């Protein structure tokens, strides 16, 4: 999709006035995008990097209300709560095979690990405006790409699952290297998930239940929405086959809400069945010693926040009262 043509003000200060023409006539004003209006209203704070924004009090109030609402919806799940910093150990990340599937999205933390001499070279290169980044080395941490990633190796180390399997409640800032001027495609964003580990029947029943809960949530938030089969953005030519297979097996569904200017609706929640992928790379076993299957219901907290702002307006006083009440009386 081409939203670049809508906006001259990519990641900038927000003003999108037409430039004066050489003949002295004002050029027609450039259409303002949703991103422009969020920045103008001070709701998102541009940093100069596409997809990395600061957030205002209003934005955070909506995001926190959304997270609390999802906690309420999942209160019956007896989920074990786990909160990790937004990093995953690099060895677990390597085992997960993320780099096979999505190398284009990965974020590996690098640091300077050299001696005085190498430090001198680093600073000299910086001062000369030369490339200095080859002076860094990968550390033992990567940025978490989806909130559920740190969970599987941790649970595998605990031994077999109990007979009823497990539900885990996770929340994390996630990183994906996909800079974009669509405000909904951020490089760092928050994801809340309920993760299910157990038998195939348990995972499929869990996923269906969360699809229905997700649809009810969107109804309650009074936003238009549709559910659709989806695939993850597997890299390369080989990735196309994997994505087609994911669709054929109906492993991923997304709940879509219109958010961006002139673009198809945006995936704000996803409902995933990973089959036995994570028990192939880690020894995750059911109580019977079978390979555990896994699935997750993922809520994009930032996308849901933007979906509400898009559909109900940037001024909270104009929002439906019921929606404000649901989000904790914002
Ligand atoms: P996924 O693992 O791709 O299904 O992502 C789960 C949810 O995270 C999506 O449904 C979105 O709501 C959210 N999400 C994914 N990528 C981004 C992004 N680049 N920026 C903001 N939210 C995202
Ligand atoms: Zn997940």
Automatic annotation (TrEMBL):
<dbReference type="GO" id="GO:0016874">
    <property type="term" value="F:ligase activity"/>
</dbReference>
<keyword id="KW-0436">Ligase</keyword>
<protein>
    <submittedName>
        <fullName>Amino acid--[acyl-carrier-protein] ligase</fullName>
        <ecNumber>6.2.1.-</ecNumber>
    </submittedName>
</protein>
<feature type="region of interest" description="Disordered">
    <location>
        <begin position="1"/>
        <end position="25"/>
    </location>
</feature>
<dbReference type="InterPro" id="IPR045864">
    <property type="entry name" value="aa-tRNA-synth_II/BPL/LPL"/>
</dbReference>
